[in-house]
């Protein structure tokens, strides 16, 4: 999606350690008009998949998922990062390793909101090593729901997540795929 690539070129900031900061338009300050275009693009890609739920992970996926959901006319569920040690039996749970913080944490979704008849689209801001998506995929599988695919705003294709998730047979659609990036040379897209 040219709009996303142009915006990354214009406003993205590259940090050491393969981190791209997009705080000014995607995951701190949010450009809602851009989110609208993202939602339309996800609808173009997944609009014929009979999606019944959009599933994302807190926090930065929520805004993008909510704006996108208005085009699909379906609810959004966000997986919560679980803070308590005891996990009650009325939730689906899986583990995610944070790319940005390096910690492993549990994510949960209430069994009330994911059902075997659901057709689930995953949405997230970044795909890096694929841990967030793997965690979300497990929640969908545990619910016995159907996974229609994943819509990602920015895939860092130089990291293994995209290949890993696609090799699991999951359809991954990324609006911008970064082939390489460095502080010196900037961003190159696939
Ligand atoms: P993964 O689980 O695929 O390794 O990483 C995905 C998650 O890590 C995303 O939900 C996103 O919040 C965060 N993330 C990964 N890479 C970056 C990055 O370069 N910049 C920012 N801002 N977040 C990232």
From TrEMBL:
Protein name as annotated: Xanthine phosphoribosyltransferase
Alphabetized UniProt keyword annotations: Cytoplasm, Glycosyltransferase, Purine salvage, Transferase
EC category: transferase
Residues annotated to bind xanthine: 20, 27, 156
InterPro entries listed in its UniProt record: PRTase-like, PRTase_dom, Pur/Pyrimidine_PRTase, Xanthine_PRibTrfase
Matching HAMAP family: XPRTase
Compartment(s): Cytoplasm
Function in brief: Converts the preformed base xanthine, a product of nucleic acid breakdown, to xanthosine 5'-monophosphate (XMP), so it can be reused for RNA or DNA synthesis.
Molecular function GO terms recorded: xanthine phosphoribosyltransferase activity
